[in-house]
Amino acid sequence: MTDEAEYRERLLPKWWVWLVAIALVSMLAVAYGAALGSTAGFVVEAGGTGLVILVLWVTSPRVVVTATDLQVADAVLPRSSVVSAMRVGPQEITTLRGPGADARLFVSLRPWSSAEGVLVQLLDPADPHPAWLFSSRHPARVVDALTATMGR
Q1: How far apart are CA 25 and CA 29, in angstroms?
Q2: Residues spanned by the domain of 36
Q3: By the 8 A CB rule, do 133 and 117 touch?
Q4: What confidence tens digit (pLDDT) does each residue in 95-130 have?
Q5: Are 73 and 128 within one domain?
Q6: How confident is the model at residue 3 (pLDDT cuts 50, 70, 90)?
Q7: How far apart are CA 69 and CA 76, in angstroms?
Q8: What are the b/e assignments for 114-139, b being 16+ CB within 10 Å?
């Protein structure tokens, strides 16, 4: 996407996810250090921490709204397909993903990043998804960016 973004965010995990992941690596490093020596423990700690940081960064989806597209993670949707966009809270997300949910929904939820999200209704007969449901730390900003040009 080469258009200038009207809205952009990366859904990195919250601080406690990073802490838990690094704590698990540290426990593994202590075990290796006790069994094989402190050098092995330091190597496991450094390598494991670097790997955890890389994996958490790379697997964090981006939400990008441009003049022409909506991108969530690797999926791209033309804005011309968007009929409406609305902010959804934790209760609504639970309902939309619970029993009786529409299995055709495109879903990109990261509960360790944000409890809120955005529901985008689509009108595109070629698209197998009637709507997109995705996490956002600032769902009102996403909705504002998506609906800014709808009335024009």
Answers
A1: 6
A2: 12-58
A3: yes
A4: 998 888 889 999 999 888 888 999 999 988 888 999
A5: yes
A6: low
A7: 7
A8: bebbbbbebeeeeeebebbbbbbbbb
